[in-house]
Structures are given as structure tokens and as C-alpha cells.
Amino acid sequence: MNQHVSNPKQDSPHRIVQYIWLADRDKQLETNNAHLCLAVRFVQQKQLSSAISFEFEQQAEVADKAPPLIGQRKRSEKKLLPPVFITLA
Fold it and tell me: Euclidean distance between the first and final Cα of the chain, in Å?
């Protein structure tokens, strides 16, 4: 693979400016890719959060339809918390 190595003594000023522009463009692309990755992660987290919220709303609706026991509040009135997974060592 032939690659041209910049030699300021042989290259014209226009060519040197072109090398600088290409380096800046590559850096900008790298930055854009990093920002895109962060944006994708943010959207994925929001989707996961929305999915969890939707699941708890569904659970609350099911709990509301269940007949309440005498002397107890409806289950949906209690604060719904996400399930906690405990690993026993």
C-alpha cells in the first residue's frame, strides 16, 4: 500500500493545508462518532426506562382489578418498586 508521507520541504503550501484539513476532518468524525454513541446509549436507557414504567403501569392495572381484601388498601396504592434480585453466595 503506497502512502504519501508529508515532507514540508517538497510539498506545496496548498498540499500542507490539505493534510491539516484531513487531520481536522478525521478528528471531527471521531468526535461525531463519540457523540453518536452517547446519544444511542441515552436513547436505549430512555427506552428501557419507558419499558419498565409501562410494565409497572400494567401491574398496577391488574392489581386494581383484583378484589381488595377487607381492611387493606388496594395494591396499586402501595408504592411499586422494581424487583430486586439477590444472589446468595
Answer: 56
pLDDT digits (tens, 9 = 90+) for 19-53: 777 778 888 888 888 888 888 888 888 888 888 88
Backbone region of residue 88 per phi and psi (left: phi > 0; alpha: psi in -120 to 50; beta: other values):
beta
CB 16 within 8 A of CB 6: yes
Q: Helix, strand or coil for residue 43?
A: helix
Four-point Cα dihedral 56, 62, 67, 70, nearest 10: 0
Rounded to the nearest 10 degrees, how much is the dihedral formed by the CA atoms of 40, 44, 49, 52?
170
